[in-house]
Amino acid sequence: MQAGVSIGEAARVSGVKVPTIRYYEQVGLLPEPPRTEGNRRLYEARHLSRLAFIRHARELGFEVDAIRTLLDLQDHPGQSCSPADSIARLRLQDVKERIARLNALKAELERMIEGCSHGTVAECRVIEVLADHAKCGHPGH
Amino acid sequence: MQAGVSIGEAARVSGVKVPTIRYYEQVGLLPEPPRTEGNRRLYEARHLSRLAFIRHARELGFEVDAIRTLLDLQDHPGQSCSPADSIARLRLQDVKERIARLNALKAELERMIEGCSHGTVAECRVIEVLADHAKCGHPGH
DNA sequence: ATACGTCCTCCAGTGACTAGAGGAGCAAGC
DNA sequence: GCTTGCTCCTCTAGTCACTGGAGGACGTAT
Fold first, then answer.
1. Domain map (residue ranges) of chain A
2. Looking at CA atoms only, how far is residue A38 from chain B in angstroms?
3. Which ranges of B43-81 would DSSP assign to H, the alpha helix?
4. 3-class DSSP state for residue B37?
5. Could you confirm whether domain A7-79 is CATH 1.10.4160.10?
6. Which residue in A has a C-alpha nearest to residue B60's C-alpha?
7. Separation between the CA of B16 and the C1’ of D19 (whole angstroms)
8. Could you give the dihedral angle defined by the CA atoms of residues B65, B67, B71 and B76, in that order, rounded to the nearest 10 degrees?
9. Per-residue pLDDT tens for B44-103?
10. pLDDT tens, position by position, B113-129
11. N or C, which terminus of chain A has less Cβ within 10 Å?
12. CB B85 to CB A56 under 8 A?
């Protein structure tokens, strides 16, 4: 086991930016690492793997609060994993809803753009649809 | 033409909350309406239709800045609609990208959840995948 | 006259960062 | 030994599009 790496190095290997790493420490996602004599953070393997965990979870769209719970579970491997399972299921549900909503938006945007005759604003379907909700495929929203 | 409606009434018919209406005025999306003797806002038809426009555009995910441009175009109907068209196209591009990313997340979340054996955290696939990026379908992210 | 609902302004908070000011540590070249 | 330039430190404030609360005024019904 070596000494550890600087915050810049940690940023490089994890793909998380330096200020974001400090932010994660500040909000309690990442434990405070030891420091050098000159007061610089020195990250060890456990910090780096935790950082990778956080990054992956953020990429999957988990909120910081959810990640805190997931990390806490990881620290207690004997517990039931059903909280982790239900956090992931909630997230999946959320993702599915977003996809459905975005597909509706996509359809409406495509209809708007397709109807545009590239003339003046007065006859622009984009503006017209925005101004009058009744003119869109009004899918609920 | 009647007098106009209160901010509460405007909120009711537009579906935009009262503080949000005041916020739109503050950031210059909605013109300042006339006031009553008692200093209350009185919205006229033009304000209400502008509010509907804003709401619809926000629902489609246009940013406030983009909406400002779109409203400006609406106020000058003789201009070419190509700026409106390109704002909408950019938005569509963005929506498409989001859908693609969310579909990838959905696949990964489903794989995670499916692999969960409902036992302890130690053998939980959800935690495991989060901890080790190599264990997911690593679709680019 | 009183009670209640709606309205007013102003200021602070949300989430998850991001950017900048102002200063100190550290390695290399001259 | 000194300077240059990079990385690091803390602290504060800004982003986006709202949202919420304090503290007070107006308006209407009883």
1. 7-79, 83-135
2. 31
3. 45-59, 64-74
4. coil
5. no
6. A105
7. 13
8. 70
9. 999 999 999 999 999 988 999 999 999 999 999 999 999 999 999 999 999 999 999 999
10. 998 888 899 999 999 99
11. N
12. no
